[in-house]
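User: Modeling request: complex.
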Amino acid sequence: MHRLIAYCWRVLLLAMMLAAPLARADLTVDIVGGGSSRYPLTILPMQNEEWLPEAVTQTVKSDLAMTGLFGLLEPPGGTALPASPQAFDPAPWQQNGSRAVLYGKVSKLEGGLLRLTFWAETVNPREQKLAAEFDVHSSQLRDVAHRIADMVYEALLGSKSLFASRIAFVVQKGKESRLQVADVDGRRAQTVLRSAEPIISPAWSPDGSRLAYVSFENKKPVIYVQDLATGQRRLLANFKGSNSAPTWSPDGRKLAIVLTLSGNSQVYIINADGTGLSRFSYSDAIDTEPVFSPDGRQIAFVSDRSGGPQIYIQPLDGSKTVRRVTFQGVYNVSPAFSPDGRQLAYVRREGGRFKVMLQDLATGDARMISNSAFDESPSFAPNGKMVLYASDEGGRSVLYAASTQHPGRVKLGVLEGQVQDAAWGPFNP
Amino acid sequence: MKVLPFVVAAAAVLLSACASTSNPADSANAGNTAIVSGNSGSTTGSAGSSSLNPAQPLPQVDAAGAEAAAYAGVNGKSVFFDFDQFAIKDEYKSVVEAHAAYLGKYKGHVLVQGNTDVRGSREYNLALGQRRAESVKQSLEVLGVKPEQVEAVSFGMEKPRASGTADSDHAQNRRADFAYQ
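Assistant: Request completed. Predicted assembly structure:
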């Protein structure tokens, strides 16, 4: 049953991922709320981990804690650190309630490389779930930590993890807006665009290479598409009136956008190169916030055609048969499809508070997954297990990630500025 | 707090308004012909090239001064709306009429920028702000302003004039501004 998976990461791990850093706005992970059904796990420091310039197991811990799916147990001080399966004794961990233990070691290789070797084992019965090895430079440790978290998640839970993805958000600092892209835990934020005018509604292309967004730099809202690797951007839509609310089709070839050519906000479809504009929604009301379903066959959007804003779904087959999907509450906005297309996250206003709801599309049942007063812009993790949203807390904005399976949220506490318009990206290529 | 942007906007508006009045296409209009000829006389280029330079000083001080005075009469005058409403209240009809009169006399182009208070969905608020801007645009057109002179756009909740959360703050943010180009 012992499996050995060896991963050797060499130098070019990251080069294609991120442009040169312009600014940092590190966030900190802060777990809110409880859950009794979490996987009990002890993560031991790696032997010789003090050789590393950053504590890899701390990042693994905060990643796994952030998922809301693991209950992390603290080892008692003075615990011996096993550096091999032969040296691992499951007995103390059977007694402290752990279901599994992660342990490992750091070795120095020639040329400044570091070797990180680690194992994950269940303790009762004892079974090795994971063994892996990374040879890396110290600059790659954070990527390795996220990768280890993904491997532990997948080995112990048996489902796809989420740390091989990034999030985008807008930070308001004074009058400056910064569109940023960061790791899932909010760290290593890179500024994609800074502007003296507002930036809103960032939307990831399905391959994670581009962001569409709305910029007010031309005294009106217009839509740009920006390549993240090169930083190059171009206008997607600058029609008369307002241009807003871009989202991508699953194949990345089209975007749904909102234009006001008819004198009211309506949903249009446009090719990703800015050609081929066609109108999608037809009402004399507001139609906005379109999102494609994951199968690309329909679009959910917000319309106040019935009075207040509610969420509707309309197929893309040209039939124009519109189905209303929200009936509770007088204000339901900002829909997001889960990756499997079965659920819709959206924001409901209730008693002057704005909450993130999670609705089963088959049954219509909806439950609240956020608990602050002003929560906005929900988006799903690419594995569907968490929903990211922005929230207002005592006059400042913060990001939260809520589990879609268990009660509980993680606060990604911002250090400076106001964070808004969070968008969880796809799995990294 | 908003003084500087307004000053900058006013300066830009004055310059661009001057540029638009010096456009040769307007030379048929008696009120603007003097400015076009004055401009072309003060430069080595043609009237066409001077019309492309909004920073060109205008020797016709009287006409420019009258326009500046007229502009000062409408500059910064906004229309405010009730919660969740886009109808123009009676008390703001005179504001719309003043802008319509200015646009009728001095031509030019205006962006009507709708705004909402800082609550709720950014994109839905953008659409609500658009509805307010369209409401003002329609009123201007009823008063004789040509459709091509007006573009209705929205800032949604992104440009609050008041950042507080009191009702009076929200009331200041539910408005349409006029940005002359």
